[in-house]
Amino acid sequence: MLMHSIPRALAASTGVTLLTLFIFGYLKGSVTGTGTFKSAPQTLMVDGLAAAVAFGIARLIS
Fold this sequence. Notes:
It is built from two helices and no strands. It is mainly α. Helix 1 (6-32) runs antiparallel to helix 2. The chain has one domain (8-61). Helices cover 85% and strands 0% of the residues.
């Protein structure tokens, strides 16, 4: 087992997800020409919010 604590694993997963969203937004901004430092935080906020809402809904129905 990589992590022995569920809260620690959730925190690590959240951190990796947020970092990945930021990198994806940065790359998207560089490819589309919209600006890397505009696209990266925008992707992070919008997709991070969507992930948080999905997590909240899953907690409610489980």
